[in-house]
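Exercise 7. Given the components listed, write out the predicted structure of the assembled complex. Treat all entries as one system.
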Amino acid sequence: MVSLEKNMYFIPNRCVVRGNEMFASFNIGPIPADKTVLSMDLHIPVPIFGISIPVLVQELAGGWDEALMATGFVPARGPVIATVYTTPMLNECSTSLLAYEYRWRFSSLDNHGLVVQMLDPYGLIFPYDQPPYLIVTTD
Amino acid sequence: MRILHGVIEIAGQMGTLSGALKRRGHISVGYNTFHTYLGYKEHLINTTGWEIERVSHHLINFFDIFHFHYASSLMTNYADLPLIKSKGKKMIMHHWGNDVRFHDQARVNNPFVYTGDSLPNEVMHQKLASISPFIREAIVQDHEVLPYVAPYYDKVHVLPIAIELAPFVPQYPSVYKTQPLILHAPTNPAFKGTEHVERALMQLKNEFDFQYRRIENMNHAQARQLYQEADIIIDQILCGSYGLLSVESMALGKPVVAYIREDLVSRFPPELPIVNANPNTIYEQVKRLLLQPHLRYQLGIQGRQYVEKYHDSNVVAGKLIEIYQNLQP
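Answer.
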């Protein structure tokens, strides 16, 4: 049995799925100030598929919210964080976001979140009712 | 399992249970909107009711089991409960006492009880009547709380208060101490009977040499440091059952004085070592402890053993997981 005691789990405070794109942001301010973050991994739900597909994870550079997104708004994109490859027949992939921990935790006004995009020719879409989540491990 | 605890933290229990569930490999998060000077933060996300309601649809999608506390839920007027139910997720309500202690019912077996912190009967009834069509099972910590909620649920589980034992290193009272230290830590003096405690201690001061310290408005971690120095700890003497302070004090190997209602004594394990005292008997019971340092030491040993057997969070989590597994959506 693997102990998850040192993990904190964060669900998005904003999340919108548009087909093969998923926009999300996380408020990690509640991490107690006396804790040091050792890792911060984004877990992305993906459809189970027989071959590995690339998933682009990119920072968002401008503000948005769920109501605004319902009007068709497209937030500005920033630098690419990572391209992650899914494992065939698994429903989740992950990537480290440790580089963003300090800014998201202590400078939350700059935290616009990220966009995840499946780069495949098969028309795969993200499940609309399974949000991504962060696992933060502390000391 | 993915378990959400929320949204009112009582006695650090959401955090303690989440920590124990995570040690067993489950994802568990305590979302707390009730912020006090006690400063609970372990295994919790401290947030606001407004924020919880705003992200409730994501929470409902992500978690499998919703373990609500103190008659709370994710949204005002329990609007989330039918949504959670429609998604086939499991729910359970954990009642802690003042959220359901009907005033007149509480006094039937206990002339001492203070119910001023409970809402009016009609409000508590309305809440329970709103919850129970959607949540069919409840948890309470003991048989003092159980009768208030039993009419509303199909099943009520009794699950002891949980404590993470590792930070509580027992320091048994010395039999050679000539000036014992008595501590009383009333988060709510009216509820705990502080007036009666201090009246008895003033009388005893005329006969015995001891120190008394009342701990208030201190965060929980700081208060715990002070408990370690005590030779006797007095918890509530009105309510009729024991709470977290008693459990933590026993874990530290201290003799504990608290009121256990006479009809409830047999509902606890027979080895419960709490010195039973109400406003009429507190003077005599504390006097007995002041006169017998070896008794203080022995009760300390018994208290630690009792907590290890019944209140260790790992033991409680095992029982909780069984409850979750048998819950119907």
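Discussion: DSSP finds two helices and nine strands in chain A. Residues 7-138 of chain A form one domain.
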